[in-house]
Amino acid sequence: MNTGSIDPPNPGVKPRSYDASRRRAGAARTHTRVLEVAERLLLSKGYAATSLAAIATAAEVSVELIYKTFGGKAGLVREIQRRGLLGAGPVPAPERSDAVSGTDIDARSLLNEWTRLSTEVAPRVAPIMLLVRSAAETDADLGDLLEQMAAQRLERMAVNAERLTAHAGVRHELTVEHIRDVMWTYTSPDLYDLLVGQRGWTVDQYRDFLFRGLTGQLLES
Fold first, then answer.
1. pLDDT tens-digit profile of 59-86?
2. DSSP string computed for the chain
3. What percent of the chain has pLDDT over 70?
4. Tens-place pLDDT, residues 115-154
């Protein structure tokens, strides 16, 4: 007679271990899909006009999942920007930048590598930074994010400037602060938008402009 009890496990059968790899892979795909959908909608419609409900519907997830994962719309923007800074390669762009800084090359070769990485990252990050700046005028969360992004970029340029001075070929009369400010200006999202976004330059032309400008400003003749 069936009493509703569960039969004890067969002692001769080893229990199947739980494989979480499939669940993790699915969660990663969902994470990427939400970010890609959010980025597309935010850049096409604007921050204020893009609701979390619209992002959730397009990404086929719940609004609750977005809140749980990203903490809301500002958190989504933060993660999109962070992902953009990683670049396109299998190794994050900041790590590649740090690695090449430690090699025994001259300043000109180092700037060449940095402009290549900047050109890789700019198309992914510049539009988001400009979106944040525009939305920060009316959204306090975006205002805070804008300040954080600006501080992080300036700090990164300060680190790069310090590292550049350790390589041969830098103009000896320049201070680290001056080098930082030159690099900060040339790699600004505004400059990328002016040349590529508004004037229709190719990315290769933009990279050449960066390299010629930085080497002309910072290196010995």
1. 999 999 999 999 999 999 999 999 999 9
2. ---SPPPPPPTTSPPPPP--HHHHHHHHHHHHHHHHHHHHHHHHH-TTT--HHHHHHHHTS-HHHHHHHHSSHHHHHHHHHHHHHT-SSSS-HHHHHHHHHTSS--HHHHHHHHHHHHHHHHHHHHHHHHHHHHHTTT-HHHHHHHHHHHHHHHHHHHHHHHHHTTSTTB-TT--HHHHHHHHHHHT-HHHHIIIIIIT---HHHHHHHHHHHHHHHHB--
3. 91
4. 999 999 999 999 999 999 999 988 888 999 999 999 999 9
Domains defined for the chain, CATH in brackets: 21-71 (1.10.10.60), 74-218 (1.10.357.10)
Tokens of 39: 């980025």
pTM of the model: 0.82
